[in-house]
Specification:
CATH architecture of the largest domain in chain A: 3-Layer(aba) Sandwich
Radius of gyration of chain B: 19 Å
Strand order of the largest sheet of chain A: 7-6-8-9-10-13-14
Strand order of the largest sheet of chain B: 1-2
Distance between the termini of chain B: 39 Å
Shape of chain B: globular
Distance between the termini of chain A: 102 Å
Number of domains of chain A: 2
Number of strands of chain B: 2
Largest sheet of chain A: 7 strands, mixed
CATH superfamily of the largest domain in chain A: Response regulator
Largest interface: A-B, 36 and 41 residues
Structural class of chain A: alpha/beta
Helix content of chain A: 40-55%
Order of helices and strands of chain A: HEHEHEHEEHEHEHEHEHEHHHEEEE
Largest sheet of chain B: 2 strands, antiparallel
Strand content of chain B: under 5%
Number of helices of chain B: 11
Helix content of chain B: over 70%
CATH topology of the largest domain in chain A: Rossmann fold
Oligomer: heterodimer
Order of helices and strands of chain B: HHHHEEHHHHHHH
CATH class of the largest domain in chain A: Alpha Beta
Structural class of chain B: mainly alpha
Radius of gyration of chain A: 24 Å
C-alpha cells in the first residue's frame, strides 16, 4: 500500500516536472514588435522610409540579408533571435497619420490586440509625446528617434531614445559655426523658424539655451502653425530682422511653402540649418527641384561613410536593389531601432516586455554594430549618450556631408547664393 | 521694419485676400438669398482641390485648365445639395438648417479622409514657381493668377446678379421672398441656382489655389474661417461687401502678422471680426 502511494506521488511529480520543462523549452516562434509611424498624413514619404528601414533590419535579423553576412553589424549573421531558438521578428505597423490623437489610439490598439514584446515610433515628436504614457502604462519597452527633449525628462522607464535629442542635434550647428568662423565666414544674427509642435518647440528651446551658453544672443524666433496657405509674414519678419543664420524645423508641406516663399520674397540667409524633417522627405526634392539646394541639415548617416565602415556600401546597395533608392536618415534610424530591440531581446533571452526593458537599460552597442555614425548606450534618463550628428548641405538635390571635416564628402557652399543667381 | 517690407506685406495680403474674397462671396450669396450659413463651404473647396489634383495626377491637366471642370461639377454638386438636403430643412427651424450644413461638413470631410487618406497632395502648375517683380515688390505667379482669377470670377458673378434676369430675380428673392412670389418669381428654382453658383465659386477657388497650396481633408479650414470673418466684416448678405471684406482680411492677416508676430495673425483676423460684430453687427456694408 505504502509502495503504491509512493509510486503515485513520484509519478505525479514526474508528470508535473515534465510539463514545467516542456513549458520552459517552448520558446516563441516569433517575437512581435509594434511600429507606430506616419504611413499617411503630411509626411507619408517619411513614414515609408521608416517602414522599409525597419523591415530591412528585421529581414537581416531573420537571416534574409546575405549582404550583411560576416560584418560587425548586430544581427548580420543571425537567423532569428539566437537565444530564443531562432525566433523570427515580426513587425506590425500602425499608422499615426502624424496626429497625436490617432497615434495614441493606434498605440493602445496595437498593444491590446497584437500584444507586442516591444514597440518603436512615432517619428513625429508630438505623436511620441502622446503615446509615451500609453506604452508606460502597459509597460512595453519602446525605442524612438524623436528629438523632443521632454521625452526623457518625465521619468518614463520604458521609453529609450536611440538617436540624438534636441541638444545633441543642435550642438553640431554651433560646432559648425565655430569651424566656419575659423575659415573667415561671418554672420550677424541667429534666428529661428519652427513649427509649433513638440519637435519644433523643443529644438528651438535647445538652440536658444545653447546659444546663450556660448554668449550668442539668440535673435528673432518665429513659431508657426501648420496648415497655412500663406507664410509671407513669417519670412518678411525674418528678413526685416536681418536674420542670416536661420534654424528651421518644418515638415514637408510647410517646408515646401516656406522655401517657395523665400524665393518669392528674395530671402536668402547665409545658412539655413534644419534638424531634419522636410529635407528628409523625397517629396520635398520632387516639389522644389533645384530650389531645394544649399540648405543644411543635421545628418546622422551617409553612404559615403563606407570608406571607414565598408559594410555601409554593401548594405546600402542591397537596400537600393530592393527599394530603388539609397538609405537615408529615416530608414537608417529605424533600421537601428530594430537592431537595439533585437539585441535586448537576445540578451533578455525572453520575449517578455519587462525582461526586454531590463536588458535594454544595459544596451551597449558600438558604432560598428549599427548603421548610424554612433553607437547606442543609454544614460539614466534613457538618452543615448553616444549620439552625435554631422552637418550635411543639400547639393545637387542630395545631402552631402560637409562637417566634421574627417567625414566630409563635399565642401560647404557659404553663403547660400542669392536667388537672382539661381 | 522698412517701408518696402510693409508695402510688400500689403501686396502679399491683397493677393491672399483675393482668394478669401471669393470664398466669402460664395458664403455670402447663400446667406443673402436664403439666410442659411453653409458650414460645409470649405469642404466644397477641398473637394474641388481634390478634383483638380486627380485631374493633374491622372491626366496631367494643369490646375488652371481644370477650372471649367470644377465650375461645372461643383455647380451640379451645389444644386444636388440643395435638392437632397437643404430643400427639406428649409421649412424646419433654423437650428435644423444649421445642423444640416454642419452634418454635410462632417460627411464631406470624413468621406475625403476615408477615400483619399490624410496625405498632403500637391498639384504643380505652369504658374506654380514663377515670381513677378513690380518694382521692389514681388508676387508669385500662382498667387497673382489666383488673385486675378478671383477678381474675374467675382466680377462675373456681379455682372450676373446685376444684369441678367435670373440674377435680378435672385436679388429680388433675397430682398423680399413674399413679394418676389407675388410677382411670379419661383424661389425654389432660384435657391437651387444660388447653391449651384455658390458651390461653383468654391470650385473656381479650388482650381486657383491648387497651384500653390497642397490639399488634404482639413484644408477647407484654411480658407473658410477667414472667409467667415470676411463675410461678417463686409456684411452678411452683401456679396460686394464680402469681397471687400476678403481683401481687408487678407491684408490684416499678412500685414498684421508682419507688424506684430506671425503667430498671432489669425488672432488679429478674429479681433477685427469681433470688433466689427461689436460695433456694427450687420457688418460694414450689411443689410
Amino acid at each position: 500500500m505504502r509502495g503504491r502511494v509512493l509510486g503515485l506521488v513520484l509519478a505525479i511529480i514526474g508528470v508535473v516536472a515534465l510539463g514545467v520543462f516542456a513549458i520552459d523549452a517552448q520558446a516563441p516562434k516569433e517575437v512581435v514588435i509594434g511600429v507606430i509611424i506616419p504611413l499617411t498624413g503630411p509626411a507619408p514619404g517619411t513614414g515609408q522610409d521608416c517602414k522599409v528601414g525597419a523591415e530591412f533590419a528585421a529581414d537581416m535579423i531573420n537571416g534574409g540579408v546575405k549582404a550583411a553576412a560576416g560584418s560587425a553589424l548586430l544581427g548580420a549573421d543571425w537567423n532569428g533571435v539566437p537565444s530564443l531558438g531562432g525566433a523570427k521578428l515580426k513587425l506590425v505597423f500602425a499608422d499615426s497619420q502624424a496626429s497625436p490623437e490617432v497615434g495614441r489610439a493606434e498605440a493602445e490598439r496595437l498593444i491590446t490586440t497584437v500584444k507586442p514584446s516591444a514597440t518603436m515610433g512615432a517619428w513625429h515628436s508630438g505623436v511620441t509625446v502622446a503615446i509615451a504614457p500609453v506604452i508606460e502604462r502597459y509597460r512595453i519597452p519602446h525605442t524612438t528617434i524623436s528629438t523632443a527633449t521632454e521625452l526623457t525628462q518625465r521619468g518614463f522607464q520604458y521609453l529609450f531614445r536611440v538617436g540624438v535629442n534636441a541638444h545633441q542635434g543642435g550642438e553640431v550647428l554651433f560646432q559648425y559655426l565655430e569651424w566656419m568662423g575659423k575659415d573667415g565666414k561671418k554672420w550677424n544674427k541667429l534666428g529661428q523658424l519652427h513649427e509649433d509642435t513638440a519637435a519644433g518647440v523643443n529644438f528651438a528651446n535647445a538652440i536658444e539655451e545653447m546659444a546663450k551658453a556660448r554668449g550668442i544672443i539668440p535673435g528673432l524666433r518665429v513659431p508657426y502653425s501648420r496648415e497655412q496657405a500663406n507664410m509671407d509674414s513669417e519670412i518678411l519678419k525674418l528678413k526685416s530682422a536681418g536674420i542670416d543664420v536661420l534654424v528651421q524645423t518644418s515638415y514637408t508641406s510647410d517646408g515646401i511653402i516656406i522655401r517657395k516663399t523665400m524665393r518669392k520674397l528674395d530671402y536668402a540667409p547665409v545658412l539655413i540649418f534644419s534638424q531634419g524633417g522636410f529635407d528628409d522627405d523625397p517629396k520635398f526634392y520632387e516639389a522644389m527641384r533645384d530650389d531645394a539646394n544649399f540648405g543644411s541639415k543635421r545628418q546622422l548617416w551617409s553612404p559615403a561613410l563606407s570608406s571607414s565602415k565598408p559594410i555601409l556600401k554593401a548594405i546600402n546597395d542591397e537596400f537600393k536593389r530592393r527599394n530603388g533608392r539609397d538609405m537615408n536618415d529615416n530608414s537608417v534610424r529605424y533600421f537601428t531601432n530594430v537592431q537595439v530591440i533585437a539585441d535586448a531581446i537576445n540578451r533578455a533571452r525572453s520575449a517578455d516586455p519587462q525582461a526586454i526593458q531590463k536588458a535594454m537599460v544595459a544596451t551597449d552597442l558600438k558604432a560598428e554594430q549599427v548603421l548610424l555614425v554612433h553607437g547606442v548606450k543609454f544614460d539614466d534618463k534613457h538618452d543615448n549618450v553616444l549620439a552625435k550628428a554631422m552637418v550635411a548641405q543639400i547639393l545637387d538635390r542630395q545631402p552631402k556631408i560637409v562637417f566634421p571635416p574627417e567625414a566630409a564628402t563635399a565642401k560647404p557652399v557659404w553663403p547660400i547664393p542669392a536667388w537672382s543667381t539661381r | 521694419m522698412t517701408a518696402e517690407i510693409v508695402l510688400q506685406s500689403v501686396v502679399s495680403g491683397l493677393m491672399f485676400g483675393g482668394v478669401i474674397a471669393l470664398v466669402a462671396v460664395g458664403v455670402s450669396l447663400i446667406w443673402g438669398v436664403m439666410d442659411v450659413i453653409n458650414f460645409a463651404y470649405g469642404e466644397y473647396l477641398m473637394w474641388a482641390m481634390y478634383l483638380t489634383f486627380f485631374l493633374y495626377a491622372g491626366a496631367g491637366l494643369d490646375p488652371l485648365l481644370s477650372l471649367p471642370v470644377n465650375l461645372l461639377v461643383l455647380f451640379g454638386a451645389g444644386v444636388l445639395t440643395y435638392r437632397l438636403v437643404i430643400q427639406r430643412v428649409m421649412r424646419g427651424p433654423i437650428f435644423a438648417q444649421l445642423l444640416s450644413t454642419f452634418g454635410l461638413f462632417v460627411l464631406l470631410r470624413y468621406a475625403a479622409w476615408l477615400l483619399f487618406r490624410p496625405d498632403d497632395r500637391q498639384s504643380q502648375s505652369l504658374v506654380s514657381n514663377g515670381v513677378v517683380k513690380l518694382g521692389e515688390i514681388r508676387v508669385s505667379t500662382g498667387e497673382l493668377v489666383a488673385f486675378v482669377g478671383s477678381v474675374l470670377a467675382t466680377s462675373a458673378l456681379f455682372w450676373f446678379l446685376t444684369w441678367t434676369k435670373t440674377g435680378k430675380a435672385l436679388r429680388a428673392v433675397a430682398q423680399d421672398r413674399e413679394a418676389a412670389l407675388a410677382l411670379g418669381i419661383e424661389p425654389d428654382r432660384l435657391y437651387a441656382i444660388a447653391w449651384g453658383i455658390s458651390a461653383a465659386a468654391a470650385g473656381v477657388a479650388g482650381s486657383l489655389v491648387s497651384s500653390f497650396m497642397y490639399v488634404n481633408p482639413l484644408v477647407g479650414d484654411v480658407f473658410l474661417l477667414p472667409g467667415f470673418a470676411a463675410v461678417a466684416l463686409g456684411g452678411f448678405g452683401n456679396v460686394y461687401g464680402a469681397f471687400a471684406g476678403g481683401l481687408v482680411i487678407g491684408i490684416v492677416n499678412v500685414t498684421g502678422g508682419t507688424l506684430t508676430m506671425p503667430k498671432v495673425k489669425l488672432a488679429l483676423v478674429y479681433l477685427v471680426f469681433v470688433a466689427v460684430l461689436f460695433m456694427r453687427p450687420r457688418g460694414l456694408w450689411g443689410r
